[in-house]
Amino acid sequence: MIAADVATIWAFIIAFAVFVYVVMDGFDLGLGILFPLFPAKADRDVIMNSVAPVWDGNETWLVLGGGGLMAAFPLAYAVLMPALYTPMIAMLIGLIFRGVAFEFRWRTTQRKRNRWDVAFAGGSWLATLAQGIALGAILQGIHVEERHYAGGWWDWLTPFSLLTGLALVVGYALLGAAWLVLKTEGELRDKAYGLSWSLLFAMLGSIGAVSIATPFLHIQYAQRWFAWPNIILTAPVPIAVAAVTILLLRSLAKRQDSQPFFLSLALFALSYAGLGISMYPYIVPQSITIWQAASPENSQIFMLFGVAVLVPLILGYTAWAYWVFRGKVRPESGYH
Amino acid sequence: MFEGWDAVALARAQFAFTMSFHIVFPAFTIGLASYLAVLEALWLWTGREVFINLFNYWLKIFAVVFGMGVVSGIVMSYQFGTNWSAFSDKTGPVIGPLMAYEVLTAFFLEAGFLGVMLFGLERVGHRLHFVATLMVAIGTLISAFWILSANSWMQTPAGYALNADGQFVAADWLKVIFNPSFPYRLVHMVLAAYLTTALVVGAVGAFHLLRNQNLAGPRVMFSMAMWMATLVAPIQIIAGDQHGLNTLDHQPVKIMAMEGHYESHSDGAPLILFGWPNQSAGKVDYAVEVPKLGSLILKHSLDAPLAGLDTVPRKDWPPVPITFWSFRIMVAMGFLMLGLGLLSLFMRLRGTLYEQRLLHRFAVAMGPAGFIAVLAGWITTETGRQPFTVYGLLRTAESASPLAAPAVGSSLVAFVIVYFAVFAAGIIYILRLMAAPPHPGEQGPSHDVPTRTAGITPAAGVASATGAAATEGAVR
């Protein structure tokens, strides 16, 4: 079913980069989403300190996703970006506000610090909603003629894309809460446990809603999931979701600090695999396949060398950076 | 709003606006990262406290600038697709990989080690921390390598072929990467970044010397910055001249625009010093010119013939007034930098480098000169290659996304508002950090509770530190 050609390898590399982005920036966007629920300055300082050393590396995966898409699948990049114009610009502006807040809030007076805290939370909400809406807009299909986008500049806005937007807000918030369980202690962690419970149920509801709505978008999605013999391959996904959910509930009940974050990531991985099953082999659903969008082979092979050598290296030193700043973050400790 | 506007013109305005804001930050961080690496190396080598104080002082500023560079840079990496989708489709196979390599070899390196550089000195030890600083500095240079290669390929495309879909594809990657204008542009830009940083550092040093001539930190940074200006400003002028001659070979029309040469000259072209380029009339009004000097500079011969824009179809003309004037602003800044460098050398030899108030005032005034020169230089090279995105092969008008004017106009307005609000605040914070002199025991960009109350003894601090270590062990 999957041809092992360079274009397919690149589809997996881009999918991997986007997933790593979701894994790494998801929780720090989630912290921004949850920020309004933590009004105390001490809590906010801890929350910020828990990601300050790594957020920049996290966002670099987004640049790789965009740059890699342009390089490996220029046609897809050229069609998707104008189609998603408004969500993309909104995402960029959201990321600006939250990105600068990391430094700015330490460089100003108390009163103005609140202003950057609002920027951090608002930017995180905006960026996450925009990413979720973009995802929904891609899934519902994009109007392509010849080699370019041929729709209007509001086509992305539908009930379905709003649903995926909210679903992503819920999902990132869960990652953020689980991150706080991992990285903090005392009352802050207790509060994060409480949030993790409610957000987990909200997340399951969102996964359910998106899963039910998706097959109604296109008959192909329904066939991909439910037609025989595909169902043998697709059925394990919901079963695994159920299994991970049980483990996650147990870790929350037993208050095993180190587990909820990684189990929430597993939930994301499964949802992401589900998306991949729905979309493959299209890169712009129902219009452009990965082979139609692919760069010439010599471009893709030229980059493949770099990826093969550099990505393991990158993962290595990124892991080292997380290791350096491991452990619980305390307000009074000398952490960074 | 914006109905009836030209969507391509709006997209160009948006690109110019977001790019101009962005380039200021990397121009500063490329130089500052290297400066920080030098400061830390000097500290490790000599053990002198002044170097670690200066390191921590500039590290705080670096953190703010770097953050702004990152967020304004993400905008650039998506804007190719959102606003220049036809360009992305056609050139993606060639310049896409160059940018992907930039991300893989540079951005990750910078971002991966930045956290340790900013916050990790006490956690990883001095040597490993120096490695982190070095990696960030090297990352900024690698980033310059790839992005200037991509830009240069658009200016002087080489090593490419066209495929059936009308896309540019690589025929020879080495020729693509090391295209004819790339080495010149790379050298010119990296030197520009170093000079820009030196001028900022020198201005901050001079600002504090004007208040107190005995502070160790300002003396050291002022001296280091003036050495940089003395040595690099002349090299930069030579590098710029060589870059210009390279442009004459590959983009002669850009040189015509820079020089205001609307008319051809068969026996020696003048050097037009000043004047007002009149694009519709095709001549420079109120020109102040030196006969034959233009040919002498460009062709190294007084009587060498030089073609003008009258040999070029009008539809291929770049906007001469902008190119002409931005070039002059850049050159003027370059010669002012040379002047500062020579003056400081003179004062240094006389032994009055730290006392000469006039020199310090001059250095303070020159603080922003590097940024002005970088912006003017980029405006020169980017307007001078119009109306093409890939020089001579792909027109700007054919590169844009199929977007309606209201969409582009709205995003442009949004960017203008957000950039002025956000980056103005950032610049104020940077100026505020610069307004205080570096002092003994300077702290890095740590975000901890800044002062311990008097009641807490050092012993308690040690106890809480060991407590932290114990919990860490438990987490492990």
Strand order of the largest sheet of chain B: 1-2
The whole-angstrom Rg of chain A is: 20 Å
Strand arrangement within the widest β-sheet of chain A reads: 1-2
Largest sheet of chain A: 2 strands, antiparallel
Biggest β-sheet of chain B, characterized? 2 strands, antiparallel
- In total, how many beta strands of chain B? 6
Arithmetic mean of pLDDT of chain A: 87
Percent helix among the residues of chain A?
over 70%
Query: How much helix, percentage-wise, in residues of chain B?
Result: over 70%
Gyration radius of chain B (Cα, Å) is 25 Å
Tally of helical segments of chain B: 15
Class from helix and strand fractions of chain B: mainly alpha
Task: Describe what this molecule looks like in 3D.
The complex is a heterodimer of chains A (336) and B (476). Chain A has helices at 6-34, 41-51, 55-72, 74-83, 85-104, 110-140, 159-183, 186-217, 219-226, 230-234, 236-254, 259-279, 290-293, 297-324; strands spanning 144-145, 148-149, 282-284, 288-289. Chain A is mainly α and 336 residues long. Chain A is globular, with a radius of gyration of 20 Å. The model of chain A has no long low-confidence stretch (mean pLDDT 87). With 476 residues, chain B is mainly alpha-helical. Chain B has a domain at 213-392. Chain B has helices at 7-46, 49-83, 85-119, 121-124, 126-155, 173-177, 182-211, 216-250, 252-259, 293-299, 320-350, 357-365, 369-384, 405-435, 458-475, and strands at 160-162, 168-170, 271-278, 283-290, 388-390, 394-395. In chain B, the strands form three sheets. In chain B, strands 1-2 form a two-stranded antiparallel ribbon. A two-stranded antiparallel ribbon of chain B has the order 3-4. In chain B, strand 1 (160-162) and strand 2 (168-170) form a beta hairpin. In chain B, helix 2 (49-83) runs antiparallel to helix 3 (85-119) and helix 7 (182-211) runs antiparallel to helix 8. Chain B starts with 6 loop residues before the first helix and ends with a helix. At the A-B interface, helix 2, helix 3, helix 4, helix 5 and strand 2 of A face helix 2, helix 3, helix 4, helix 14 and helix 15 of B.
